[in-house]
Amino acid sequence: MKIFFRSLLLTFVVSSFGFSVLADNPLKLLPTPKVMKVDAGQMPLTAQGRIVATDAALKPLAEILSDEILLVAGVRMQVATGDAQAGDIVLKINRKLEADAEILTVHGQDVVKTKEYAHTINVTDRVEIVGWDYRAVCEGTATLLQAIALDGGKASVPKISVKDWPYADYTSIMVDCARQHQPIYVLKMAVETCRMFKVRYLHLHLHDDNAYTFPSTAYPEANTKGGLPPYKLEEMKELVAYADARGVTCVPEFEGPAHCTSLLDAMNGRLGNVKNRCIDVINPDVYPIIDKLVGEMCEVFKSSPYIHIGGDEVEPVWYLGNEHVKKYMKEHNLTGEHTIWLPYGVEMAKIVKKYGKKTIMWEGRPVGVPLDPILAKDIIVYTWFPKGQARAAQDAGFTTITVPWDMPPFPDFSIFTCNDTVLTPRDRVLGANRPMWEMSHEALVNSYLPGTSERQERTWGPDNVIEEDYKKNRVVKQNVRADMIIRPVTVNTEGKLKDGVFDEPMGVTMSTTVPGGKIRYEINGREPNENSPVYEGKITADKSLHIRAVVFDADGKRVGNTTVAPKLRYVPFQSSLTTRKPVSAQSVGGTNENPEKAEYANDGDVDGNKFWGAIPAPLWWKVDLEKEHSVDRIQVVPYFDGGRYYQYTVEVSTDDKTWKQVVDASNNTTPGTDKGFMHKFTATPARYIRVNMLKNSANPAVHLVEVNAWEPGK
Q1: pTM for the structure as a whole
Q2: Domain limits at 675?
C-alpha cells in the first residue's frame, strides 16, 4: 500500500486550446475539471458542519445543497451565515475571479470572449467554493456532490483544490414539450440532471404542430388547438425559478415559420392559412401578433439571454402556390425557394432584440430560413442535419451551436464535430446541444436524461481525455450519484420482467437513503403528495403500474424530486391466429438501437415500447396465418400516447392476391389505448391479413403495437 505524503500525482497534457488538460481524473468527476490537485486526507461531513452562505444571494443554493447532501450522505447540514469553522462548507461570490482561458459567450447582442464564469474549490479542514457568479458557485457545488466519498455509513470530501470553467457558454440539452406532455416535475428532473453535470441551459421546445404549450394571456385562443394541454403560467414561472436557483437557465422556443399548424389553426388565419402549413412570412400583419407571443415568453423566461425561433423544415409547395407569394417573389426577383423565408429570420431577430434577448434558430432542413449573411450578426445557428452546414454557417459569418444528427463514435465527439464537419477552436462555436424528440416522460427520465453526462464531457471541455472505460466506469459512477438526488426513491422489482413487461404477478420494493425517511407513492402516474399512500413494505403487482414516489424526512419535510419509475406493464401473453406467424411490411423504420420490427406487431404483447413503425404513410403490414381460417374478429392496436389517433383499413385474402376489405377505420379520430380497437364482421375465409395504415395525426410515421385475429366462438 502506497503512502502519499503530499499529493497524488496528476498528469496534464497540452490541449489545442492553449491550456493544460487533466489527463488523470482519480475522483472520476464528470466533466473533468480543467485544473485539479488531490491531497492526502479527507474532511468529514457531519451534522455538526454547516453550509455557510457568505452572501445573502447564496442562501437559496445553500438550502438546496443541504437537501442534496442529505440525499447523498444521509447527513443534514444546517444553513448558516457568519464566520466559517472547521467542518463547514463555505459558499462565496468573487467577481474578480477569472478563468485561465477565454470563453465564448453572449453579452446582450454581442458574441464575445470573456474570462468570467470560473469557480474554485479548496478543501482543507473546511470546504470553500468560490464562483464568479451564482451559477459558477452552483457548478462548484455540483463537483462537490460528485466528489463526496461514502465509506461504511460515513461521508467525507477528499482534500482537493479545483479550478474550472466551461470552454464555451452554451452547454445544453433540449426537451420536447410540444409533442408529448412533460409534467413540470419531470422538467424539474431535467433541471436536476443539468445541475449535476454542469449543463448550463435547458432548451424547452414548447411549440410544434401538435400544440402551442406556452400559456398565452394576450391570445388565450393560441392554446385551444392541438393534442396537448398548455402549461399554467404559474407552473412556467415556478420551473424557471427552480432552474435559476440551481444554476440552470431555461431557454424557450417559439417555433416557426413551419411546425406550427396548431397555432395557425387556433389563430384562425391571422398568422397564415393552416393549409399552407407555415406562417405567412411576407405578411407584415403577422409580426405584431408574434411580437406579443414572444414578449410573453420573454417576460416569464427573464433569466435567459436567448430565445429560439425555430426556422427549419418548411414544406414549401403549398405556400409558394399562393398568388400573393408569387407576386412577392417576382417583385423582389427571388428565384430560389429558400429566399422567401428570409423575412421570418429578419423580423424575428428584430422582435427578440427588442426584448433584450439573443436569437437562436435551427438551420433550415431541408428548407427553412436561409443562412444569409445579413442574419449572421443577429442570429446564432443550431447546426444539426444537412452535411456541411456547420462549415457553411461559419463561412457565412454565423456563430454556431453543434447539434449533430449523426453522432460520431463517442471518443471522437466534441463541440467541434457536427455530422461530417469538423470545426476548430478558431471557429465561433458557442457550445453544443443534445436534443430529445417526441419522447414520453418515462423514456425521457429513464433513458434520455441518464445519457446527458456522456456527451457533456466533450462539451464542457472539447479536449478532455476520454479513458478506455469511460462509459462503464465514470459515466456509470456519476449517474448513480446523480440518481441519489434526482431519484430519491429507488424502485426495484422481484420477478420476471423483460423490457418493462411482466406476465405474472411480481414484487415491487422501494427504498431511500434519507434517515427516517417516509416514502409516499402513487401507482397511476400521478405525482405523489403528503396525502399519498405510505410505502410500508413490498407491493405485489398484478396489474400495470406507473409508479411515482417522493420522500419526506423525519421532520416531515419533502426532500428532493419525484422518482419516476419505468412503466411496469402487466401484459398476460395473448395468443391468437396471428401470434408469432410470418410477417412482412412495406417498409420498416427505427434504428439499430431501437428497431421497429414488423414482428413486434404480432408477438403476443401489447407493449407500447415495441411496435412496427415506418415512414411515410400510407404503408401496409401483413401477416400469413400459414393456413386458411374463418375469421370474424380482428383487433388492431396502433401506438397509443393518449393524444394521437391513426386511420387504417384491414383486408383479408386466401391467396395473397385478391383482397377483401373487412375493416374501414379510414375516418377514425379516436385516440388509441392499450386496448386497441376490436372490429367484428361476418365470418370470412382468410389466410392473409393486411393492415393498411393511412394516417397518424401526430406525424407522417405509422405504428402498430399489435394485431390479433380470431375464429368464431374462439
Answers
A1: 0.83
A2: 583-710
